[in-house]
Amino acid sequence: MSLNTQQLLSYKKNINNVHAIDAMIGHEFSKDEDMTIDAYKKNVFYPGIPELGNAIQPYKDGATSETIRSAIEGYFARANYSYDNRYSVSASYRYDGTSMFKYNMWGHFWSVGGAWTLSEESWAKDAEWLDNLRVRATYGVSGNRLNDTYPYTNLWGISEMNGQPTISQSTVGNRDLSWERNKQVDLGVDFRFWNRVYGSLDYYNRRTHDLIWKRPTPSSTGLSSRLENVGILQNQGFEFDVTVDLIKSKDVYWNINLNGSTSNTVLIDFPSELGNPALGGDYISGDYLRGKGKPYYNLYLFDYAGVNPENGNEMFWKEMKDADGKVVGREKTENYGEATQYEIGDAMPDLIGGIRTTFRWRNLDFSAQMAYQLGGLQWDGASANLYNPWRPGFAISDDLAGNTWTPENPNAEFPMVVYNKKIDRTYSTALFRKASYFNLKNINVGYTLPQKWTSKIGAQSLRVFFNADNLCFVSAHDGFDPRAGYTGTSFVNFPQARTFTFGLTLNM
């Protein structure tokens, strides 16, 4: 059950077409109550009837229920002022409270910004090539709240032992827990030159302070961690969107658009208890090695060294150290447990974006949309599943056909196939592929019949068209789709379909 209310009061005023003012104040409130009941039974009498009465044996712990209540309330205000379409300033403020932080629920959030339209200045009026030039900047603080259930208090679980009820603590609450705070700077430029080249360039820098993190607790507490505001994460990057009208005439129009963005996420601070002295204070999280000043998605993997041509076993690189523990080189080993993990690099792509083009000649029109990604690394989960020949009855990749080690094929790419023997290479650099790709997402070709024809049937216009989606996709490996992941992992996903459509659009 949910309840949502909002009240707004706005004001707008224009004075002599020079001063433009608008302001707003408001209040909003939201309350949610989620009630859940689960029950389970087995030994179904008649398949196909999904009713508890159709089964005879309850599971242990087979029924449970819970009620979760939460609320959030906010007061907000915004004001904008513009002078002569040249200068503008804005400010906003929010005062938000959430029941998830019962003892520290309220947060102050605000932003200020300004813009200057240089092309409206008198000294820029004579520049015939300059149609629009506007610079803008904003700085603000916003908040993130937690979605965990009652994080401010200890939670306990009830169970059974020898027919008697027992109680045990499941989480440690934190009364000081509060909002995460995003401090963000945005700088941008909007432009239009020669009435042909137009777009925008942007830079952003966001630092999230007071990250809510699971801080390790002493083992004597019986629990592994508790939530605290202890981390800092930074994300910054550039965005661009540029369009060029290549041809502009009565009968022919052709333009092309290029857009893209970069994103660099770095961990600035985290709970010191997570750090491992053997790793210089860094810590391992899944496939990542994280530390202060490192990319948040910094891959930390075993380095695959190929197949031993003498026996068909997999090999991995292992560091060699002298008596003082100094690395003096590296060698290959067949023992996966002895292999050395290495920092491979940031899994995030360097650039992601798209290309669009539109062409029109008289009544014929054509458009195309493309997407691209440059850089980054991703685990190829689809190939990993298909490189498991020890699973009887499962499909395997055609990469393995004629390319696994045998005494007659000692230089094969893949190791010797042995029933019920796992291939460790799937968890190393061998299946972390370059995540660059190019995708021709859509083309559309159409022809609009002359109006002197369509008017005879009482229609304003009639356009026949052909549309094709996902015509071409190129990546580092056949079947590998980096679009399905973004932070270093691409699991098995249903492939995107290639579709063709013929149709017409009729306006009466």
Blueprint (SSEs and pairs):
Elements: E1 2-15, E2 19-44, E3 55-83, E4 87-98, E5 106-117, E6 130-144, E7 155-161, E8 164-171, E9 180-193, E10 197-216, E11 225-248, E12 252-261, E13 264-269, E14 283-285, E15 288-290, E16 298-302, E17 304-307, E18 314-321, E19 327-333, E20 341-346, E21 351-361, E22 364-374, E23 377-380, H1 381-386, E24 432-434, E25 437-448, H2 451-454, E26 461-474, E27 489-490, E28 499-507
Parallel strand pairs: 23-27
Antiparallel strand pairs: 1-2, 2-3, 3-4, 4-5, 5-6, 6-9, 7-8, 9-10, 10-11, 11-12, 11-13, 12-21, 14-15, 16-20, 17-18, 18-19, 21-22, 22-25, 23-24, 25-26, 26-28
The amount of helix comes to: under 10%
| Range of strand content | over 45%
Q: What's the total number of strands?
A: 28
Distance from first to last alpha carbon = 45 Å
Rounded Rg: 31 Å
Structural class: mainly beta
Number of helices: 2
Oligomeric state as shown: single chain
Biggest sheet layout = 16 strands, antiparallel
| Chain-averaged pLDDT | 89
Sum up the overall morphology in one term: globular
What is the H/E string?
Answer: EEEEEEEEEEEEEEEEEEEEEEEHEEHEEE
